[in-house]
Amino acid sequence: MSDSKKVSALQLDANMQIESSEQNHHWYSPLEIPFQVAGFGWLEEEKRYRRLPVEPEWELPLAVDRLANCTTGGQIRFTTDAISLSVKVKLIGAADMYHMPATGQCGFDCYIGGPGEQVYYGTTKYDQQLTDYESVLFTNMNREPRIITLNFPLYQGIDEVWIGLDPEAQITPPPAYTSNKKILVYGTSITQGACASRPGMSYTNLLSRRFNLEFLNLGFSGNGKGEPELAHLLAEIQDPACLILDYEANCVSTELLQQTLPNFIAIYRETHPVTPILVISRITHAREHFEAQMAKDRTDRKQIARQAVEERRERHDVNIYFCDGSLLLGENAQECTVDGSHPTDLGFLRMADGLTPILQQILG
Question: What SUPFAM superfamilies does this protein's entry cite (predicted)?
């Protein structure tokens, strides 16, 4: 092919070019005061951007242990009057997913505003072949206080991240959460955030902008299988406001869900007898329109989940709830996914919209 026929949008469209940082920045670790890092249940003890402890009391499946290094759900929160903001990132690995943009897998995105009023500003731009990058999020802003939330990558680990602000910038703590209670969400690749185009569009991050509480995303891609070890480990997390169980999609059989779900709930209840639990059945898959057995399996498993909730309520466990996940994507659900099963940003927005009133009721 001749050079005249080659198309490079990065060369032809200035808006798509990666902006180089020429700012004179002071660089800060978000682990330092007054920054606040949320979404990592063991950060205070281990000082690592990891979603499970490095050496847990309960043995983890190998895949879960590795996926725990993915930083999905992590957030950096602070208030600043900075006129410029950049991030410097050292990834554990490079972007490598065929159906998910590097901006979602390995990028950070930035929201400005207080609780319930966060507005998206921008996403890191970088060469997706790199594992170390520096990216400008904004420059030339007015000198006035802003509440900043930076969402961590959904599908890669972070060795280091640094926040770059102009030298005159003042930094103060972010607004406090409503309480120290946390919402825990255990599940699959969909919970982890596949395949949002940027981190702020995973459904747990969407919900975090609607509820002024810390969210812990405990989605493990392909490996949310309801093992008892995970139930014990989640029970160690103090001050839960709610536990959401959204792992049906990784159950390889109806029998596995029937076995694991009641046991998972029972183990968690030993430590947290009254914490609200919300069980979500899986969203619809596009292939169900063509494969009757897949549709039947989803219906059967939904009934198992509903029955598990009803049986506990009959035993006076009044703080357990069921959500029919097949309704969350709404009309034209097949248009809300990348590959028939993993939601796009539209799919995640619909999921968050469907879950918001349910959580409002549960949390009061």
Answer: SGNH hydrolase
Q: Is residue 127 domain-shared with residue 156, that is, in the same domain?
A: yes
Q: How far apart are CA 333 and CA 351, in angstroms?
A: 11
- Six-digit token pair at 123? 């996403």
CATH of the domain at 36: 2.60.120.260
CB atoms within 10 A of CB 55: 6
Domain boundaries, position 352: 182-363
Return the pLDDT at 16: 56
Task: Give 152's pLDDT tier (boundaries 50, 70, 90).
Answer: very high
Residue 7 inside a domain? The answer is: no
Residues 189 and 165 occupy one common structural domain: no
Label the pairing between strands 119-123 and 75-80. unpaired
Residue 214, classified by CB atoms within 10 Å of its CB into exposed (0-12), middle (13-18) or buried (19+), is buried
- The answer to whether position 9 is within a domain reads no
At residue 24, the pLDDT reads: 87
Strands 240-246 and 277-280: what pairing? parallel
pTM score, two decimals?
0.94
Written as one letter, the residue type at 277 is I
Q: Identify whether 186 is part of a domain.
A: yes
